[in-house]
UniProtKB/TrEMBL annotation:
Molecular function GO labels: 2-succinyl-5-enolpyruvyl-6-hydroxy-3-cyclohexene-1-carboxylic-acid synthase activity; magnesium ion binding; manganese ion binding; thiamine pyrophosphate binding
Lineage: Bacteria, Pseudomonadati, Bacteroidota, Cytophagia, Cytophagales
Pfam family, one: TPP_enzyme_M_2
Protein name: 2-succinyl-5-enolpyruvyl-6-hydroxy-3-cyclohexene-1-carboxylate synthase
Limits of the Thiamine pyrophosphate enzyme N-terminal TPP-binding domain: 10-119
Catalytic activity: isochorismate + 2-oxoglutarate + H(+) = 5-enolpyruvoyl-6-hydroxy-2-succinyl-cyclohex-3-ene-1-carboxylate + CO2
Quaternary organization: Homodimer.
Pathway stated in the Swiss-Prot or TrEMBL entry: Quinol/quinone metabolism; 1,4-dihydroxy-2-naphthoate biosynthesis; 1,4-dihydroxy-2-naphthoate from chorismate: step 2/7; Quinol/quinone metabolism; menaquinone biosynthesis
Amino acid sequence: MPVLQPIVNIAELLHQKGITDIVVSPGSRSAPLTLAVARHPHLHVRVMADERSACFVALGMALQTRRTVGVICTSGSAVYNLAPAVSEAFFGQAPLLLLTADRPHEWLHQQDGQTIHQVGIFGEHVKRSYDLPADYTHPDARWFIERTLNEAITLTQLSPAGPVHVNVPLREPFYPTNEETFTYESVRTIEVCAAQPTLTADTWHRLLTEWDQSERTVIAVGQLPYDPALLAVLRKLSEETGVVVLGEIVGNIPRNDLFITRTDTFLAGITEPEAHSLQPELLLTIGNSFLTRNLKTFLRQYPARRHWHIQPTVDRINDSFQSLTTLIPATPLAFLEKLFADLDYQRFLQGDDDDEDDRHAFQNQWLQMDREATRLVEKTLAAPTDTLTDWSAVRRILDQLPALSILHLANSMPVRYANLCGVDERRQISVSSNRGVSGIDGCLSTAVGAALMTDKLVTLLIGDVAFFYDRNALWSAPVPSNLRIILLNNDSGHIFRIIDGPSRQPELETYFETPHGYTARNTAQDAGLTYLPCESLDALEEALGDFFKPADAAKLLELKTNKQANQDQFLAYKASVKAYQSR
């Protein structure tokens, strides 16, 4: 097998560069890559037959650990199946290394099977794409392969993290004979030293001056991983300076007595005088995308005079609210900790400042609106009913999540219901969701991947269309026993009944909701899951008593709800919001 030794060496280089986990989809052209990683003593290889699901599983693993995960697949259309997860990883900033086997390029357009244009196949949805040589006889070819893999692996982690593609053309023979053995040769690794951007003293003083001149300051937190240290400094800033801290469940901003989490409710139909009273002078944004349209609309229609966005790199200008004045290259935690320390020192030197009352007055306006919104939500959920609805179920589930556990939210309505409910800060729940592209494809696979990488309980809240679309997540590998799946099955794409446009069309049910009539019973049985059906509030309360307890197998709780009852409840909520705004 000496001709494929450079491919065998790739496995050793993955290990030396800190990669421990590989997800492989079976195939013949990819056999040298698969055998190289499978036989390596320090690489943990998992097999997923469906390439689309496999890449989402790898995404979930990368999101959970923040370490690079490798993905290997064979040539041809198999490579295209990686694309949905690749695009989510790109915009969600998750580190993936994609190793795609290929035929040598001279066989393109020669009627050879499984041969397509694979070089650059993911376009701009990867940080970089590489193509290795198919022949390794010249020493420069081996040097190029080694150098390329060093660069590609490093690039997956350099901020912003993301997917990198390495296309690997392979000639036959693919399989070693019985007499051949693998030898993992010594490989050269190239270290890239980490560095943090720093601000000059003049720039820092200018930023402090802008802060001091702004009495109405808002910090808006987009999607970010759970970080107790970041939450601690945000709380201190809010308590001691009166700054408004707002965010959503996907940004891991929990419910507490200081953070603003109900913007989707109280910014709906807000009056112009109220909007002006909440308009910031200085807006700080951190993290990635925001979930709720009402918050984004408000910040665009009533922009701050100064808008700082804090991100580790300046490769792209993120101006989603169309008001950006300053892009600050820094990690949010480091910047905010230094900001708080300097402000605290200023307060110590200057003593109490009467202006602080004005700052807290602005904060109190936001807090009052947030508390009113909480009452409106609670009023909707407290309405007497014997009918199990998606929203009421989500509220009960989130209130009973075990402390220190992990919550994955599928897209469409589950993430929105969860955001309307929120999670209590004292529970220390870590929340994750595929909000880079926000598709429903791969939500189940992503949660499976996360559960594979932790001993903590991982709960997935998912709708029926997303679940049945991604059933192959449960097909190939044993489902981790720490996974809990809660399936909201209303027999439709329920979000189209909530959105104003499609909900008014006569084609709603046939062309938008697409009812299916499926249940998850057979899927759960095939995958070896404990299956719990539920059709009432009483049954839900009884099921939740044992659902989160440790077990030898993963569990699936399927909630059968009525889409009309779901719609009626949500319309009642919207009506109460409208009535409050027109009071």
